[in-house]
Write a structure and sequence with these properties.
This protein has helices spanning 23-38, 60-77; strands at 3-5, 14-20, 49-57, 80-92, 95-106, 120-131, 134-142. The chain is built from two helices and seven strands. The mean pLDDT is 92. The longest helix is centred in the middle third of the chain and has 18 residues, at 60-77. It has a single domain, classed as Archease, Possible Chaperone, Chain: A, domain 1. The strands form two sheets. The chain has a four-stranded antiparallel sheet, with helices on one face. By secondary structure, it is of the alpha+beta class. The protein starts with a strand and ends with a strand.
């Protein structure tokens, strides 16, 4: 499994760890893990609609934080859940640039088994690191 929930890290919020062979795969897996915080089965969210996301940051941690924060914003502002991502990350001068397409559908409480609402990404224990087999992140979501 490309992500797992870390129950021992926090008692009031939800923590997860996502991994990937590439940084793009890790970002995608973190996006699905964020969805899994909110719905019982992330794979029931159909990739019917797409939203383009572009983010810039000084480093990988800030970029992932901004990306996940945008997904929460789109959940609230556009009433969208996203289950699939096409992500490209590149370095431009001293900045990291993310271009992503997020695929999902409008939130439907009758169709989606909603568990809890994600309010925000927190900086508490937040980290992104390069590991032997790719990339790993640790994230805590305020619920």
């Amino acid at each position: 499994m490309p992500y797992k929930y870390l129950h021992e890290l926090t008692s009031a919020d939800v923590a997860f760890e996502a991994t990937g062979k590439t940084i793009e795969e890790m970002f995608s897996d973190a996006g699905v893990a964020l969805l899994g915080v909110m719905v019982r089965d992330p794979m029931k969210i159909e990739p019917k609609l797409e939203f383009k996301i572009e983010k810039r940051a000084n480093d990988e941690e800030s970029l992932l934080f901004s990306f996940l924060d945008e997904l929460i914003f789109l959940k609230d502002a556009e009433q969208m859940f996203f289950s699939k991502f096409k992500i490209e990350i590149r370095k431009e001068r001293k900045e990291m640039v993310l271009n992503a397409v997020a695929y999902g559908e409008k939130i439907d409480p009758k169709k989606h088994d909603i568990v809890i609402d994600a309010k925000a990404v927190t900086m508490h224990h937040f980290k992104v690191e390069k590991i032997n087999k790719g990339w790993r992140c640790q994230v805590i979501i305020d619920v």
